[in-house]
Design brief:
about 400 residues, mainly beta, 6-stranded antiparallel barrel, elongated
Length: about 400
């Protein structure tokens, strides 16, 4: 510790001198040759955009081998730029960044998943990749999403492959409310749908699958006491009124209860898109600032969780409710519609519009626990991950 303090003091004295040298973009304390892992010897490290031969550097710009007894090192880091999840990532495309169907504003690439044959897919929400049921299998998926400058077809990175259909509260559903729409097996050589907007009378600008114009479904908690516990008068969470969820039933008239029982019960909002094989880019399975997810586990009350998403990027939260029943508002081609979800999980506020599709990861491990699909400033809603993977017949670990 005393030795580290000596180098920290040396940094304080000589940092400005080193930063004044051409090409030096940063200074810190680290191990000598830390960029190659060759030493555990402490040094004062100068970060440069590009390493050059001594003969190509002006004498006044050469980093000395030591300053007042403190050895130095030079590490090449390239040009350091501020980068956000809304950028166009090329050639390497990680998880946690902006993606969307061409008719959706923007959502988040949650993670990469695999089928039994080892084919790779993007995992996100139905309302991000499938435009809330209004897309066709084979439609293009853009990175970044249209709201972040994504252009169709130039920014195509994947093709819509499968999605769990969403059933709305006014649908007359018999059987599974979330039938899987799409291909059971991938085509050997996928090609984009030549017309990614084939539905008649489709709007010419991206639709917003939620509130705020940025691709996150709004939600309504179906039980009154939850909102009171949030104690947030600015929250966009609203208790459903008696017109849809009666707070008092007449024991003589069972009609309200029967009407509620007839509402389709969705289990998930999810979709996958098969990645394109091209020399223009490659896919990094790490989630930005989280890393590689290696397994799954069920969410539990009080669990600390985290995510990286298109809008709020890295955030953490705590699971506050399990087995929640929630009404979610969607914007569709025919207007605003509501879908009821059961068996969902709520956390403290850790997302905003556009974070839809983010993978929720345990705070103390690299295990995935859920797929984020809705939220407000006060709370975030996600579906347990095993339900999503099972429904879409994919897995996070290709070797599992």
């Amino acid at each position: 510790m005393a030795l580290i303090n000596q180098f920290l003091q040396a940094q304080q004295r000589f940092q400005n001198l080193l930063l004044s040298k051409a090409g030096v973009v940063g200074v810190g304390v680290g191990y000598k040759n830390s960029d190659t892992g060759e030493s555990d010897e402490l040094s004062l490290v100068a970060l440069v955009e590009q390493k050059k031969p001594l003969a190509a550097i002006r004498e006044e710009d050469i980093v000395p081998q030591e300053v007042e007894g403190a050895k130095t090192d030079v590490v090449e880091v390239g040009v350091i730029r501020a980068q956000t999840a809304r950028d166009r990532f090329r050639p390497t495309i990680p998880a946690g960044i902006s993606v969307a169907h061409p008719m959706v504003t923007a959502g988040t690439l949650g993670c990469f998943v695999y089928d039994d044959a080892g084919n790779m897919y993007i995992l996100s929400n139905n309302h991000v990749l499938s435009n809330s049921n209004d897309a066709l299998i084979g439609d293009r998926i853009l990175q970044p999403g249209p709201a972040d400058g994504g252009e169709n077809p130039k920014d195509t990175i994947a093709l819509l492959h499968r999605y769990a259909q969403i059933s709305y509260t006014d649908d007359n559903v018999v059987g599974d409310p979330n039938p899987v729409i799409g291909k059971e097996e991938p085509e050997p050589d996928p090609t984009p749908n030549p017309d990614p907007t084939p539905i008649p009378d489709r709007p010419t600008t991206p639709t917003n699958p939620g509130s705020g114009g940025d691709g996150c479904a709004a939600f309504i908690i179906s039980f009154a006491d939850t909102l009171a516990k949030m104690n947030d008068p600015e929250a966009s969470v609203q208790v459903v009124k008696a017109s849809s969820v009666p707070t008092k039933f007449d024991p003589i008239d069972p009609t309200p209860i029967q009407a509620q029982a007839a509402i389709p019960q969705n289990g998930l909002d999810a979709a996958i898109a098969r990645v394109l094989t091209t020399d223009a880019f490659n896919f990094n399975t790490d989630i930005v600032k989280i890393g590689k997810v290696t397994g799954t586990r069920p969410p539990t009350l009080g669990m600390r969780v985290r995510k990286y998403g298109r809008t709020t990027e890295y955030t953490e939260g705590t699971v506050t409710l399990i087995n929640a029943t929630i009404d979610v508002a969607y914007s569709t081609l025919i207007g605003r519609r509501t879908a009821r979800f059961t068996g969902q999980v709520m956390t403290t506020g850790m997302s905003a519009g556009g974070d839809s599709g983010s993978l929720i990861v345990a705070g103390d491990s690299q295990d995935a626990v859920g797929l984020l699909f809705a939220g407000s400033g006060a709370a975030t809603i996600f579906t347990p991950i095993e339900r999503v993977l099972s429904k879409l017949k994919v897995k996070i670990n290709p070797n599992a």
